[in-house]
Automatic annotation (TrEMBL):
Organism of provenance: Anabarilius grahami (Kanglang fish)
Lineage: Eukaryota, Metazoa, Chordata, Craniata, Vertebrata
Bias (Polar residues) ranges: 84-95
Any GO CC annotation of this UniProt entry: cytoplasm
Keyword terms: Coiled coil, Cytoplasm, Metal-binding, Transferase, Ubl conjugation pathway, Zinc, Zinc-finger
Name of the protein this chain belongs to: RING-type E3 ubiquitin transferase
B box-type domain boundaries: 100-141
Intracellular or extracellular location(s): Cytoplasm
Segments forming domain RING-type: 11-52
Main enzyme class: transferase
MF GO annotations: ubiquitin protein ligase activity; zinc ion binding
Length: 284
């Protein structure tokens, strides 16, 4: 059975992972080879295999974002498969003296049965009664793990919301860039037609106007492409964080999860909460 992640990178034509993905004007994506073959096999006008909307060769736009996401998901799924293949060995390792030592308090040689909510770390009962943790709040590891996994789910919710906004912004930027390019092409054609009727003096003026138009077009598109690049990078960073947090939810041992939470999870989700508080709730 395919995982939800693997289904996101499947081409609906060949049912395999995307290879050189392209996106149509209707926003459905396919392998370039698959959609090209589909177009060549069509007897009449080509229609999208998903929604039947007409398209032509000029509508095929390379999707670097989808290509990068496919690569990231493949690596993640390969890592998960490797982890599952060694799960039996990992279970045996949990009962080994070495693992038992890892879950013991290095200061008091007692089992780490509690989680200090104040310091966000595993402690033993002797640590709890010491001056270092005086007045702190403690939870049993199982209860603390459930609470903090809830924090992870909330963090994933933040990511999903922000990624939805980022995806919308990416689509808007792509649309605006296309409109600007189309408008520029139309203006260029109109200018050429008008100056075609004039003599050599006006030919020089035509060249000057075209150069200015190209300069303005380049200036506008460079700004838009820079914005799109920043949004794409933020989107991919969030996707990588989403994969990391999703994998953390699959950690079954509460103490191991809390060790991860102390080292990586808590700082990451804290930073995400701060960003969520600073980010407007709606994209205008």
């Amino acid at each position: 059975m395919h995982s939800p992640l693997s289904l996101q990178i499947k081409c609906s034509v060949c049912l395999s992972d995307f290879t050189d993905p392209v996106t149509l004007s209707c926003e459905h994506s396919f392998c370039r080879e698959c959609i090209t073959g589909h177009m060549q096999a069509s007897l009449g006008p080509s229609a999208c295999p998903e929604c039947q909307r007409p398209y032509n060769k000029e509508d095929l736009k390379s999707s670097r974002l989808l290509r990068n996401m496919t690569s990231t998901v493949r690596e993640h799924l390969a890592e998960r498969k490797s982890n599952r293949s060694t799960s039996k060995e990992g279970t045996q390792a949990l009962n080994s003296p070495e693992m038992e030592k890892m879950l013991m308090c290095s200061e008091h040689d007692e089992k780490l049965k509690l989680f200090c909510e104040t310091d966000q770390k595993l402690v033993c009962v002797i640590c709890r009664d010491g001056d270092k943790h005086k007045g702190h709040v403690f939870k049993p590891v199982k209860e603390a793990a459930q609470i903090n996994k809830g924090e992870l789910k909330t963090a994933l919710g933040f990511l999903a919301k922000e990624n939805g906004q980022l995806d919308y912004m990416i689509q808007q930027q792509t649309t605006e860039i296309t409109k600007t390019e189309d408008k520029s092409k139309t203006l260029s054609a109109q200018i050429s037609a008008q100056f075609e009727e004039m003599h050599q003096f006006l030919q020089q003026k035509e060249d000057e106007v075209k150069k200015q138009l190209e300069k303005e077009e380049k200036k506008v598109i460079e700004v838009m492409q820079k914005n799109q690049s920043l949004i794409n990078r933020r989107f991919m960073e969030n996707k990588e964080k989403e994969i990391i947090l999703q994998s953390a939810l699959e950690i079954e041992q509460p103490d191991h999860f809390l060790q991860w939470w102390n080292e990586k999870g808590f700082p990451m989700t804290k930073n995400m909460k701060q960003k969520a508080a600073e980010t407007p709730s709606n994209t205008q």
